[in-house]
Sequence to fold (278 residues):
Amino acid sequence: MEIIIVGLGLIGGSIAKALKQNTSHRVLGMDINEDVLLDACSCRAIDGKATVSDLERADLVYLSIYPEEIVEFVRQYGSRLKHGCILTDTCGIKGEVCSAMERIAQEAGHVPYEFVAGHPMAGKEQSGFYASDPSIFVGASYILVPGKALPDAVDAVETLARQMGFGRVVRVTAQEHDRNIAYTSQVPHALACAYVLSPRCRQHQGFSAGSYRDVSRVANINAALWTRLFLDNRQCLVEELEELLGNLKLFRDVVEQADEKELEQLLSKAAQIKREVG
Fold:
């Protein structure tokens, strides 16, 4: 296939490298940063820079850009994609994106592409092409939101995910995705950021070990990206934050009251759940 990756940041760059390492597909890239494109060509992460005419010939296009940019890109170039082209994204929220894509299709009456929403569950603290690394995909999960896409298009995206090294592919609705992502991804980022806002954070050297690293790791955050992700999924995130705050209040209250029995029960319950689910 001829594959185009729009946005060669951490995820887009890692997809490009993984595809070049593990498949024989031709991979082209698009990015607003010319230096990134030159670097991607130099290290052979891509076969070349994509043009609009390349988009018209592409078999599959990955949109590895911010949610609002996905919608803008599709409005501008979607009608120019060839019939049967598979269009997929990699962003961390699905309700807003899938709804917008559905509106675009309804307004147009007909679109030539098959849209398969996707979310590779992999990453690291660093961002940008220079941090891209295909090894982050090995054994990770890839989430697909098929929507109204044809089964063959969904299967094609899943096949590429497995070829890139993903160990598990999960198919869900946009609503299921956003509800679960609020808990597994967005709450931990909010928690890590809230944790390091303590004045004790600047004094942690010499007192910290694995626990500090584990809780604070994802606080090294891409603020612009995560602001958008938080707000685009605000209803699910607010509900999960309320759940967390309620549980924290339980711990605060039993500690404040020196209720040893209740505290031990809370800790035991949490430990048991963690042992059961991993």
The mean pLDDT is 96. The longest strand covers residues 114-121.
